[in-house]
Design a protein that fits this description.
four-stranded antiparallel β-sheet
Length: 119
Protein backbone atom coordinates (compact mmCIF):
# COMPACT_ATOMS: atom_id res chain seq x y z
CA UNK A 1 0.00 0.00 0.00
CA UNK A 2 1.43 3.31 -1.00
CA UNK A 3 0.39 6.65 0.36
CA UNK A 4 -1.03 9.17 -2.05
CA UNK A 5 -2.77 11.86 -0.05
CA UNK A 6 -2.63 13.16 3.50
CA UNK A 7 -5.04 15.57 5.10
CA UNK A 8 -4.05 17.10 8.41
CA UNK A 9 -1.47 14.35 8.98
CA UNK A 10 -4.00 11.56 8.26
CA UNK A 11 -3.50 9.42 5.17
CA UNK A 12 -6.84 9.48 3.34
CA UNK A 13 -6.05 7.94 -0.06
CA UNK A 14 -4.23 4.72 -0.91
CA UNK A 15 -2.88 3.40 -4.21
CA UNK A 16 -3.60 -0.14 -5.37
CA UNK A 17 -2.84 -2.40 -8.33
CA UNK A 18 -5.49 -4.87 -9.43
CA UNK A 19 -4.32 -8.46 -9.95
CA UNK A 20 -6.11 -8.77 -13.32
CA UNK A 21 -7.33 -5.30 -14.26
CA UNK A 22 -10.45 -3.66 -15.63
CA UNK A 23 -10.97 -3.74 -19.41
CA UNK A 24 -13.02 -0.78 -20.67
CA UNK A 25 -15.27 -0.62 -23.74
CA UNK A 26 -12.33 0.16 -26.03
CA UNK A 27 -10.32 -2.80 -24.75
CA UNK A 28 -7.90 -0.73 -22.63
CA UNK A 29 -6.59 -2.47 -19.52
CA UNK A 30 -6.62 -0.43 -16.28
CA UNK A 31 -4.79 -1.89 -13.27
CA UNK A 32 -3.64 0.94 -11.01
CA UNK A 33 -5.96 3.08 -8.96
CA UNK A 34 -6.64 4.98 -5.78
CA UNK A 35 -9.11 4.35 -2.98
CA UNK A 36 -10.01 6.85 -0.29
CA UNK A 37 -11.03 6.16 3.28
CA UNK A 38 -14.77 5.55 3.64
CA UNK A 39 -17.03 7.91 5.52
CA UNK A 40 -20.05 6.95 7.57
CA UNK A 41 -22.26 8.14 4.70
CA UNK A 42 -20.43 5.87 2.26
CA UNK A 43 -21.57 2.92 4.34
CA UNK A 44 -25.08 4.20 5.11
CA UNK A 45 -26.20 5.59 1.73
CA UNK A 46 -26.13 2.26 -0.18
CA UNK A 47 -28.63 0.83 2.31
CA UNK A 48 -31.26 3.17 0.81
CA UNK A 49 -30.62 1.90 -2.72
CA UNK A 50 -33.35 -0.43 -4.06
CA UNK A 51 -30.69 -2.67 -5.65
CA UNK A 52 -29.26 -3.37 -2.18
CA UNK A 53 -32.74 -3.89 -0.70
CA UNK A 54 -33.47 -6.58 -3.28
CA UNK A 55 -29.95 -8.09 -3.19
CA UNK A 56 -27.71 -7.40 -0.17
CA UNK A 57 -24.64 -8.55 -2.14
CA UNK A 58 -24.95 -5.40 -4.28
CA UNK A 59 -23.88 -3.29 -1.29
CA UNK A 60 -20.19 -3.86 -2.05
CA UNK A 61 -20.64 -2.70 -5.66
CA UNK A 62 -22.10 0.65 -4.59
CA UNK A 63 -19.64 1.06 -1.74
CA UNK A 64 -16.59 0.50 -3.95
CA UNK A 65 -17.97 2.83 -6.63
CA UNK A 66 -18.14 5.55 -3.94
CA UNK A 67 -14.60 5.13 -2.55
CA UNK A 68 -12.50 4.34 -5.63
CA UNK A 69 -11.32 7.74 -6.83
CA UNK A 70 -9.14 6.62 -9.72
CA UNK A 71 -8.77 3.57 -11.92
CA UNK A 72 -6.26 3.98 -14.72
CA UNK A 73 -7.61 6.54 -17.18
CA UNK A 74 -11.29 5.73 -16.60
CA UNK A 75 -13.06 9.11 -16.52
CA UNK A 76 -15.83 8.18 -14.08
CA UNK A 77 -15.93 5.23 -11.68
CA UNK A 78 -19.53 4.09 -11.22
CA UNK A 79 -21.38 0.87 -10.43
CA UNK A 80 -21.11 -0.21 -14.08
CA UNK A 81 -17.31 -0.21 -13.83
CA UNK A 82 -17.34 -2.18 -10.57
CA UNK A 83 -19.90 -4.67 -11.97
CA UNK A 84 -17.53 -5.44 -14.85
CA UNK A 85 -14.44 -6.18 -12.75
CA UNK A 86 -13.13 -9.72 -12.77
CA UNK A 87 -14.04 -11.58 -9.56
CA UNK A 88 -10.39 -11.74 -8.47
CA UNK A 89 -10.21 -7.94 -8.68
CA UNK A 90 -13.50 -7.51 -6.79
CA UNK A 91 -12.21 -9.79 -4.00
CA UNK A 92 -8.91 -7.88 -3.95
CA UNK A 93 -10.71 -4.52 -3.63
CA UNK A 94 -12.97 -5.80 -0.85
CA UNK A 95 -9.91 -6.93 1.10
CA UNK A 96 -8.08 -3.67 0.34
CA UNK A 97 -11.12 -1.68 1.56
CA UNK A 98 -11.09 -3.60 4.86
CA UNK A 99 -7.34 -3.10 5.30
CA UNK A 100 -7.39 0.67 4.87
CA UNK A 101 -10.59 1.28 6.84
CA UNK A 102 -10.08 -1.02 9.81
CA UNK A 103 -8.08 0.07 12.82
CA UNK A 104 -5.24 -2.34 13.52
CA UNK A 105 -4.57 -3.67 17.05
CA UNK A 106 -1.35 -1.62 17.06
CA UNK A 107 -3.28 1.56 16.29
CA UNK A 108 -5.85 0.71 18.97
CA UNK A 109 -3.18 0.20 21.66
CA UNK A 110 -1.30 3.35 20.61
CA UNK A 111 -4.55 5.31 20.80
CA UNK A 112 -5.31 3.87 24.25
CA UNK A 113 -1.81 4.78 25.47
CA UNK A 114 -2.24 8.35 24.18
CA UNK A 115 -5.62 8.63 25.94
CA UNK A 116 -4.13 7.37 29.21
CA UNK A 117 -1.15 9.75 29.06
CA UNK A 118 -3.41 12.68 28.17
CA UNK A 119 -1.41 13.65 25.06
Amino acid sequence: MMKTSKTGGLQTEFEFTLPRGYIDGEGTLHKSGTMRLATAMDEIAPMRDPRVRSNQAYLVIILLARVITKLGTVAHIDTGVIENLFSADLAYLQDFYRKINDISPEEMSAEAETDESGE
